[in-house]
Amino acid sequence: MKKVELLSPAGNYEKLETVYHYGADAAYIGGKVLNLRAFSKNFEDEELEKAIKLSHNLGKKLFITVNAIPHNEDLEILPEYTKYLESLKVDAVIVADLGVFNIIRKHTNLPITISTQASNTNWASVAMWKELGAKRIILARELSLKEISEIKQKVPDVELEVFIHGAMCISISGRCLLSNYLTGRDANRGECTQPCRWKYHLMEEKRPGEYFPVFEDERGTYIMNSKDLCTIDFLDKIIETGVDSLKIEGRMKSSYYAGVTTKVYREAIDSYYSGNLNTQNKEKWMKELQGVSHREYTSGFYLNKPGKDSQNYKTSSYIRNYKFVGKVIEKISENKYIVDVRNKIRKNDVVEIIPGTGSNITIHLNKIVDYEAGESLEEANPNQKIVIESEKPLEVGDLIRTMNISDS
Ligand code: SF4
Q: Average pLDDT of 208-220?
């Protein structure tokens, strides 16, 4: 049986290495043109070439987003840019606009994936894109399991991709002008400031500065503040719709988020095929997903239409149960490893190492040593390189965390 693909976000080269370390089959990244994540560190040419080399050496696929909604001025560079992507042998470009699609088809033979921004919510539009030559369609998030199964049955010979985890829009997948109106930043050009998550008050025009709370209940209201999608509880049902690829959202999120979500869904997908996708494992994975930065979780549109329970009413802040503190970057002897520090690490901290596969390793750091000076330290700060010891073998790329006691 062909295994469904696990597709992870990579906002930069380090995140790309991380998602591969934790088992992604493929990754999607933004190039420098028409990319929908203007604020993430997108890949410049040299880094893009390196990224493709890394992906293909590891037998992974790399997809490049070209999915912002373009205006006339955006089109001129497209033939040259996409020919360049073709010369690099990228595995597909992700496109939202029919004109962009047409230009790419005319100038290249690149495989094209249709972005969720194209709002494909029915089999007829999927069939049309297929007829036009698309290789894969990313379905809109606003679909139920039943609708996805129907689309697969009616249009079996085109690849389908769906989101399984990450932030949701209150509008139809990013087709929203709220950010343009309130901040002048265009969500459809990758600049969304997420004003749907803000807390809104009522102000009467003759009483400037007097803010009246809008109450949905005693806590006030975040009227458009969607919870995040999480599908670990019913991932088997999604796989059984017959889709080809399961995508994690979050190119702007941290390496830690990308790594942990990838590892959890990797284990869940593998367990599905080996018959171990059971309640006990689901509880374990859910605990891990509670440990990455997230808002409260929702099942989105998969099981039923989201109602008032799909909104966050208390806060738009992220929940963070763990603190990402470092990454193993080199093994220097049998039990000694260099760690790149990302958040303060103190001597005697109890840290958890997250290996590429298998259970986490807990270590009591009774000694931390500055890698360059060779001196024992009481604490290490971000960007410092330290040496730690572990009796159990660690791997380059393993991420390290502590419980998030302080708010950072
Ligand atoms: S403001 Fe909210 S709903 Fe609109 S595009 Fe941004 S995240 Fe999506």
A: 69
